[in-house]
Amino acid sequence: MARHLPQGDRERHFANEVSEWLPDGLVSIDHRGIVVHVNLRAEQITGLNRVDLIGRPVREALRLQDRDGQMWWDLTDPWSGLRIRTGHREKLLTIGGREVLATARYIRQGRLGPIAVVLMGLRDAVARQRAELDHAALISTVAHELRSPLTGVKGFSSTLLHSWDKFTDDQKRFMVETIEADADRLARLITDLLDVSRLDSGRMGLHPQPLKPRQVVTRHVQRTVASGQDASRFVIDVPEEVTELWADPDRFDQIVANLIENAVRHGAGTITISAYPVAAAGGNGDGPAGDAAVDLLVSDEGDGIEPHLRNVVFSRFWQGGQPGSTGLGLYLVKALAEAHGGTAMVEDAPGGGARIRVRFPSVVPDYLLQ
Fold first, then answer.
1. With contact defined as beta carbons under 8 Å apart, do 138 and 145 qualify?
2. SS3 of residue 248 by DSSP
3. Residues of the domain holding 76
4. Which domain-ending residue is among 124, 147, 166?
5. Looking at the whole model, is its pTM more than 0.85?
6. 301 located within any domain
7. How would you list the strands of the sheet with 234-237, edge to edge?
8. What CATH number did the domain enclosing 213 receive?
9. Could you read off the pLDDT of 46-93 as tens digits, one per residue?
10. Is residue 284 exposed (0-12), middle (13-18) or buried (19+ Cβ within 10 Å)?
11. Alpha carbon distances (Å) from 195 to 45, 190, 210, 213, 312
12. What is the pLDDT of residues 233-244, one digit of tens each?
């Protein structure tokens, strides 16, 4: 039937048919502000019958309101005002008690001519609501993670303050060490949150310098033991003679801390921290030929990580179905490693668990030579 229509009508008919396959709602409004087309998805999102919409002024047919209760068409008014406007960005609006995400494109007659057609896109706000719930859950988790070490600091410091003379020197030392470990954890959590913001905004500054990894690894294992972990659970296999790696001291410290905490929280059995020099073209072959590198590896003897999840674990806020974690540790490990020109990956550990391999350059980064 469409083939017998005039050329312009055939094109509009074809466009309307195609719009029925779109995953989002589409509403077409002509130069007079009259609704001329509504696809099925728009009908489902608004809860309105398109038969009742088509042919009516859009101000009456789609009574969209912003969060202040103002009518959206009165605020945006595509048919009046500046002719340089080309549309509006996605906005959360309500219609009939339903929340929708609306955006629009203004098609004009000529570059600065009057409106010919307004194409409005509509999306269900369920995804946004789900994201808001996820963020609320994250805030709750972060609050819990911050409160836990803070409770330890407060409890032990208060006990020492009020009962100093009742404890032996060894008991006092244990409490002070625990306070220090909890304070370090608290500072690390705050640093992680700030660094996520810096990475997202592109404001992460790095100041690489040559580092010996053994010192840093040993210090973090000692802190983890001071916080209550069994010392026999950790094996440090980082020879003193391991080639220096180039990294920002604070960021490398952060990477080591997050790797060890991840192994303690999600792994099992013995945790082995090792480092050794490799040629980036050798080993796993992840870097350009001839670039010297140092691999830092943290292994455990737990259940390991399934192959199909090995990229997902580095996603932001990923918790692996285990609540009680911010889900930022491995995300930051990978992001910071890549910021140094390195890589991060998950492998099978020799003992059957998971092994995280982080590769750092052991030569001066190119941008420091420029």
1. no
2. coil
3. 2-124
4. 124
5. no
6. yes
7. 234-237, 271-279, 292-299, 354-361, 343-348
8. 3.30.565.10
9. 999 999 999 999 999 999 998 888 899 988 889 887 888 889 888 889
10. middle
11. 38, 9, 22, 22, 20
12. 999 998 877 667
